[in-house]
Specification:
The structure holds two protein chains of two kinds. Chain A contains seven helices and ten strands. Chain A is an alpha/beta fold. In chain A, helix 6 links the parallel strand 7 and strand 8. The radius of gyration of chain A is 18 Å and the shape is globular. The chains are: A alpha/beta, B alpha+beta.
Chain lengths: 230, 832
């Protein structure tokens, strides 16, 4: 599993939380390599640390020990500001509960990562609006998120996560809060965009069906990560 | 409702002690806001009056110089008028403690027993009251004054030695001496302040009083002490009313604070409340539960408010007492007294205000759907849907306030109108904020994402921001309103006094004020010397005395005015030339604007004045602009004064220098000429103007304190509103962090938002404050004091208000930003 040229390298990763005064281990000495452009499904029972792993990969959480390197950049050696800049530029996030900004319109939610990255040229905006058309929300660009259905909100969240061309897309149960048909359409959309842009995707899911569409299936349980044979 | 239900609700505030503290502090401030200091001053006034009056049912009073002692002897001996007791009373400064006035009460120890408790009680204590008779320097002193005290009268100092101790806070600042000692101290040889009498109750007493009235020589009157005390107490009623108005303002802002604190605690517990609903707790039970919690908070806040009130009240009572001393009458009692009724009033208001302010949050809690948290969007869309109702409600209240001001003629009606206008403006705030956000959108479109988000956030979170902006707006509009009123007042007074005091030098005995008239006068020799001093071109003379108009004291000034002094009086009614001509005869008077307003008098009317020759009618020749006394002043030519009063004295004089005369040298010359004859104060008009404005500024110190209190409460209100908002948006901020926004950028977002809120509050506070100022100037001041003021707006004050409002809002945003920066986004995202 060790590959020094891997796009993502995780070495001896340890994370624990304090529950009251008792430390609770999420994982200890976790090792993982992920190659560029892969679509990884991450399975595991609730509370096993899947979301924690995504948070560590995005740099919004820090490990107690170990190393995370993405595209040759050591996330664990960066300070807070550097991690934030790295995340802003190279990572897209899709959440189970969409987490759109309620006070921004559809279009503004979409432009948010571009503006944060200073990519606000007319060309970038046109490309972003194309993406919006692509996810079927071109007509809703001036609506506020609360006016959208769950499926529409998640399509917008996916467009927002990809609009600035990130290297890595982290998706935390993106279909978990949607009905089966909508969930399937969201998954198709993600796969299509993944194929077009070649973005690496790590997706947390409980669905075997979703996992079945991934390049690799990893399971996290009792602090250990295993790859399921396909 | 089960104990577990209560426990589920109650554990939250107990686990958030800071928040609990904030809510209790808000309620406490409401309780404090109720005029505790004011109540204390009223109480100390009543005590001061009581300790003079004692058990007396009636008293015989005289004119300017009191009652001749011989008349007392005659009544007691020849008419066997008993029980009767002579009283000499007045105020003298403590020579060793500048600023402390001591009340001298001179009594006859032999006649005293039936009248005053302190003396009666003390006779059996560690001294013999008769010691006062033997030693002219003996006095009964309060413990705090030590073994001896030195008082000052003009240039003279007298040291009094302790012959006994007065105990108890109600006797603070009181010195009891024998009557002859008091006469010496106060310069009232052979005169009494009044004669106390105890007449029987009922018809027999009335008959005796009537009989006595017919026997009294001209110039003496029989009156009941309580009537006089009431008249004196009424003197400062409008000042007290203004304090009460400021306290009510703090109450409104305090209610905003309680609302915010309660809303905050509901927001935090929304999921718990939803869960309780899912478990079968009814809407009504939740409503009662939250209101019950508010009631407990109200009680705790009231308790704290009582303690804080006692502390703050004892600090403020000095300010209130000082102002009353400056403007109305002398209060030597400076201890803080609080009556249980004032505390009970505060407690009732505290609990009532809490329950009223908690009603909407409690409804919000009861509306939480079972099992699920009520979405922000749902809550906010409810608020947006209510905007037309806010608009309509605000406009209706503004109209009602306006109509109340137009159609009511009383001061209370003026205050009701004022508060309707204030609440109307507060209701209009949320719709106007939404409008401002719309206007601001174009501007922020060019300022980048953060500005755009911050601007829109204000309107999108209206349920939180609207209330906070309204609270800030009310507090700062009060700042503008009161500030403009004070500036206008000060400007008016400065112009008035500049016109009035146009002489070069003012000469008066080194006297203290006793009531509203001076006890010391210029000697005729000194006056003649002044007129004959080389370099003096003209002299005006003044004598101020207190006359009773329907039981209320009004200042009558007998004047002999040089033409230039005459020009200093601005006649606002009546033909000036004809008025002054009639005035010179001594049969016509000029009255001040407040007196004309209060009594509905105008030129041509007649006014009955009690003179030393009985009651006389004087024609009103003109009405002059005057800020000297809210109770009115009467100007009478000296010729008339000498004709009807047997008192040819002059209280003070104004001197005009001959052209080209060096004023400093002239002053020295006057001092040289008059100094050997009498101890005098020779002051320039500038010095008197300065002194007047000093007193003016001191009067409004208490107003400033209450203004600061209102702003403080508003800032705490904004802080709790922002905390509620920050808590609700924790996941939104965490998402932004996950997308790559730094904590600093999110901090900037919150600061921009609070800055915008502050700016909106500041901008709205300016027109609202100007409206408030107009009502204060043209309605409240007119009805309370009877004078008209020019409306003067200092642009600096408006800019300062805007800056302060933005500053206060930014300040209130710092803690939420600090908290937000400490929140780990991973944690916030995990809680889904």
């Amino acid at each position: 599993m060790h590959n020094s040229s891997a796009f993502i390298q995780i070495r001896r990763l340890t994370r624990r939380y304090l529950e009251g005064e008792q430390p609770r281990r999420i994982f200890t000495d976790l090792d993982l390599d992920i190659e560029r452009g892969a679509f990884i499904a991450l399975l595991g029972p609730s509370g096993c640390g899947k979301s924690t792993l995504l948070n560590l990969l995005s740099g919004i959480d820090l490990p107690d020990a170990g190393l995370i390197e993405i595209n040759g950049c050591s996330l664990t050696e960066m300070n807070e500001a550097e991690r934030t800049r790295f995340r802003r530029r190279h990572i897209g996030f899709v959440f189970q509960f969409f987490n759109l900004i309620p006070t921004l319109t559809v279009e503004e939610n979409l432009f948010l990562p571009l503006e944060l990255n200073g990519l606000i040229s007319a060309e970038q905006r046109d490309r972003a609006l194309e993406l919006l058309d692509h996810v079927g929300l071109g007509e809703r660009r001036n609506s506020f998120p609360e006016r959208l259905s769950g499926g529409e909100q998640q399509r917008l969240a996916i467009a927002r996560a990809l609009v600035h061309g990130p290297l890595l897309l982290l998706a935390d149960e993106p279909t978990g809060n949607l009905d089966a048909a909508t969930g399937t359409r969201i998954l198709e959309l993600l796969l299509k965009l993944h194929r077009q842009a070649g973005t690496t995707i790590i997706m947390v899911t409980h669905s075997q069906e979703v996992a079945g569409r991934a390049d690799r299936i990893l399971t996290l349980d009792a602090g250990r990560i295993q790859e399921l044979a396909r | 409702m089960t104990p577990l239900f209560w426990r589920a609700l109650a554990r939250h505030p107990l686990r958030h002690p800071w928040q609990l503290g904030l809510a209790i502090l808000g309620i406490a401030l409401v309780v404090v806001a109720v005029d505790l200091a004011n109540a204390s001053a009223r109480r100390s006034f009543a005590l001061a009056m009581e300790r003079i009056a004692g058990q007396a049912t009636h008293r015989i009073v005289g004119g300017v110089s009191g009652v001749a002692e011989a008349q007392y002897v005659q009544m007691r001996v020849e008419q066997a008028l008993r029980p009767s007791a002579p009283v000499v009373t007045g105020y003298l400064p403590n020579a060793d403690r500048p600023g402390q006035l001591l009340q001298i009460l001179g009594i006859d120890p032999l006649a005293e027993a039936p009248f005053r408790h302190p003396a009666a009680d003390l006779s059996g204590a560690d001294f013999d009251i008769r010691a006062l008779l033997i030693n002219p320097a003996a006095a009964l002193l309060p413990e705090a004054l030590g073994e001896a005290v030195t008082v000052q009268h003009g240039e003279q100092r007298f040291t009094l030695h302790r012959a006994g101790t007065l105990r108890g806070p109600e006797l603070d600042g009181l010195i009891i001496t024998d009557i002859s000692t008091a006469q010496t101290l106060l310069g009232m040889a052979g005169r009494l302040s009044h004669i106390d009498l105890i007449l029987p109750d009922g018809a027999a007493g009335e008959r005796q009083a009537e009989e006595l009235r017919t026997k009294l020589p001209p110039g003496l009157r029989l009156e009941r002490p309580d009537q006089r005390n009431q008249a004196l107490a009424d003197l400062s009623a409008s000042f007290s009313l203004n304090l009460t108005a400021m306290s009510l303002l703090a109450l409104i802002v305090g209610m905003f604070l309680i609302y915010n604190a309660m809303t905050f605690s509901i927001v935090q517990r929304r999921s718990l409340l939803g869960l309780l609903r899912a478990l079968g707790v009814s809407r009504r039970e939740l409503l009662i539960g939250v209101l019950g919690e508010a009631l407990l908070l109200g009680l705790a806040g009231t308790l704290l408010g009582g303690v804080l009130g006692l502390w703050l009240g004892s600090a403020l009572v000095h300010l209130v007492t000082r102002t009353i001393n400056d403007l109305y009458y002398v209060l030597s009692v400076r201890e803080f007294f609080i009556e249980p009724i004032a505390l009970a009033k505060g407690a009732a208001l505290g609990v009532l205000a809490t329950l009223t302010a908690a009603w909407l949050p409690a409804r919000e809690a009861a509306d939480v759907p079972p099992g699920a948290a009520l979405s922000r969007a749902h809550l906010e869309s409810g608020w947006r849907a209510s905007l037309p109702r806010f608009l309509l409600g605000g406009l209706i209240l503004l109209a009602a306030g306006g109509l109340t001001l137009i159609f009511s003629l009383s001061l209370a009606g003026g205050f009701v109108g004022l508060f309707l206008l204030m609440i109307g403006c507060a209701l209009l705030t949320p719709p106007i904020v939404v409008g401002l956000v719309g206007l601001n959108q174009r501007l922020t479109a060019r300022c980048g994402l953060l500005a755009r988000m911050a601007n829109r956030d204000v309107a999108r979170h209206l349920s939180r921001t609207g209330i906070a902006v309204a609270a800030l707006m009310v507090a700062f509009s009060a700042t503008v309103g009161v500030g403009v009123m004070v500036d206008s007042f000060r400007g008016g007074v400065a112009i008035w006094i500049n016109d009035l005091l146009n002489a070069d030098l003012y000469i008066a005995p080194a006297a203290i004020e006793n009531g509203n008239h001076r006890t010391e006068t210029l000697t005729p020799a000194a006056l003649t010397a002044l007129r004959n001093t080389p370099g003096i071109a003209a002299v005006s003379t003044y004598r101020a005395i207190s006359v009773d108009l329907d039981g209320r004291p009004v200042v009558l000034i007998a004047v002999d005015l040089a033409p230039a002094s005459q020009a200093g009086y601005r006649l606002i009614e009546g033909d000036a030339e004809a008025a002054w001509r009639a005035f010179q005869s001594g049969e016509a008077i000029l009255i001040s604007e407040p007196l004309a307003y209060r009594r509905g008098l105008s030129v041509g009317d007649e006014l009955e004045l009690p003179t030393d020759q009985g009651v006389r009618r004087f024609t009103i020749a003109g009405v002059f602009l005057d800020y000297g006394s809210e109770h009115g002043r009467i100007l009478l030519h000296r010729a008339g004064y000498e004709r009807y009063w047997h008192n040819p004295t002059v209280g003070s004089a104004a001197a005009f220098a001959a052209p080209g005369e060096n004023l400093a040298l002239l002053r020295e010359r006057v001092q040289e000429q008059l100094g050997p004859m009498q101890s005098l104060l020779i002051r320039s008009s500038r010095a008197i103007q300065q002194r007047t404005l000093e007193i003016f500024d001191r009067t409004f110190t208490i107003t400033q304190v209450l203004r600061v209190l209102a702003i403080l409460v508003a800032v705490i209100g904004v802080l709790s509103a922002l905390l509620a908002l920050q808590l609700e948006r924790a996941r939104e901020f965490a998402t932004l962090r996950a997308m790559g926004m730094t904590a600093r950028e999110i901090g900037s977002l919150v600061l921009l938002q609070t800055g915008f809120m502050g700016a909106a509050a500041g901008l709205l506070a300016i027109p609202t404050g100007l409206l408030l100022a107009s009502v204060l100037i043209f309605v409240i001041n007119r009805r309370a004091f009877g004078w008209s003021l020019p409306l003067t707006v200092e642009p600096g004050l408006l800019l300062e208000t805007l800056a302060l409002a933005i500053g206060a809002a930014l300040l209130a945003g710092l803690y939420p930003i600090w908290r937000m920066a400490r929140t780990r986004p991973a944690e916030a995202l995990r809680v889904e």
